[in-house]
Amino acid sequence: MKYSEYSAVIIGSGAAGLYAALKISQQINLPEGLLIVSKSNLGESNSRYAQGGIVAVMHQNPNDKVSLHVKDTLNAGAGLSDEKVVEYISQASDEVLNDLIKLGVNFDKDKNSNLMFTLEAAHSVRRILHSGGDATGKGITDALSKAVLSDNNITVLENAMAVEILISAEKECKGVIIYNELTQEHEVVYTSALILATGGVGQVYKYTTNPEGATGDGIALAYEAGAKIRDMEFIQFHPTALALSPNSKNRFLISEAVRGEGAKLVNTDGEEFMSRYSDKRELAPRDVVTRAIYNEMKKEHSSNVFLNATVINHNKLMSRFPTISNKCLANGVDISKDPIPVAPAAHYTMGGIMADVSGKTSIKGLYAIGEVASTGLHGANRLASNSLLECVVCAYELADYLSFANLEVPQKIDAGIKKMIDVYSHSISGKSYDIDSLKHQLKDVMWNNVGIIRNEESLLKAKDLISELKNEFKRMRKCLSIKEYEYRNMLTVASLIIDSAIQRKESRGAHARSDFKTTSEISVHSVLEKEVEKDLIKC
Ligand code: FAD
Ligand code: SIN
Hints:
The chain is an alpha/beta fold. It has 15 helices and 21 strands. The strands form six sheets. It has a five-stranded parallel β-sheet, covered by helices on one side.
């Protein structure tokens, strides 16, 4: 086994991980340096594919103010957002967005060089910055990756996966075990600040807008380490993903900003149906639009509805949405002439590792930022474009917090940790698994039973089916490949979603149960926490 030590280790290279690396490096003396570990290439992440933009409550936007953004976020969050957190993040957006611009992120400007603000569902004013029209995520991750690669304090390790968090007998985080796909070896990395920026869980569903790597690793690892996990029943299904055929599973997003600019939803009869569901029509909160589409599809026995963007001025459509129009055209849909076939797909994880705005979790030395974290910003339903904002504000706050912390690498490693490491130094043999087929089975279970609408019967059925899959897969610690580790983590995450969904006996935000009505009563977060087996961490 290879051993190394770093003052801070970041797992994940999306917006949260990359920006945290830069801010920590800028602000903190790092005697042992900083390591950023990424399962694929640097920057490959959900962040990279973000289209619509990033919320920015900026002083140069006369129509906006923090109180308006807070109100919109709380309304979308359906009674479960933490108002103090919402205010804090909204307040910080001006400073952090200006910092991103200084780091080289180019947000789109009009011909007078003023920043352009767009509109998305459930926002009361235009407040969303975008880059390259509809390529905001690429704009952000390209600029941040470039800055990370030219920073001498930062070591980058690609194609390597964090597979277990090292926890001492005192329940403190002391480091992480990494599986390096290129060398096929496990490595031990000690650190006093382990930062999870591993993103969401979209891949546990059959249809998702998320890229392949979104398998919920950070949430599974933190749960196994004994951290508190919160609100996992709240999975956001984006209403409009390109649905060319029922077989196309990884679904390309058709940004909400297209509706923000005027596109209309129509059913297979050609009827504009949104007014039957909400007076905000196409710009109702995401969960409302998703359920409306789901109803229409069910009623019409169809696998999609249509988004009509032809009503948008041609030049505007082409210049605002070049990525979407090219992707659709490559698949035979000219968005300036043809209605776009769309259907909902799993998109965003509102729950995650319980953390405050500076990333502190329930375990000392373990931090969580970005989509992997549950800070209380999103509540039961995320407001569009608030997640990139949360990524960068929490990364910024984390660097600030760590600048006052002691980042000396732990010298005393206890016998419990040595025992954990031992598991990874022994070779394992046994059956080989058809992981692709197992992943598909899991995704089907989740889509069919824990999807847009659930109920007690479907959730209990899913629980049994996931237990069967767990019994079949014998590698719940050491595995033989990234794919196997991902599947191991997906099983854990699927159980967390199901257990939280069973616990929440009401419909709220994105958690819609056919056996319970939506209530306006005050509600509480669902929290799951594993009793970490004492024999693992004790001598
Ligand atoms: P990610 O960007 O997902 O990054 C996670 C990183 O962790 C990746 O590099 C991954 O490879 C790595 N990783 C994961 N597990 C491991 C492991 N075990 N070991 C090592 N590395 C690991 N939000 C907005 O605010 N505005 C938008 O316009 C918008 N559009 C979106 C469009 C699409 C298609 C999608 C999928 C999401 C969109 N979102 C948008 C949501 C937003 O992009 C994400 O919530 C946000 O980018 C998450 O950033 P992150 O840094 O937390 O995680
Ligand atoms: C979109 O562009 O519709 C996605 C925005 C988001 O997920 O916040």
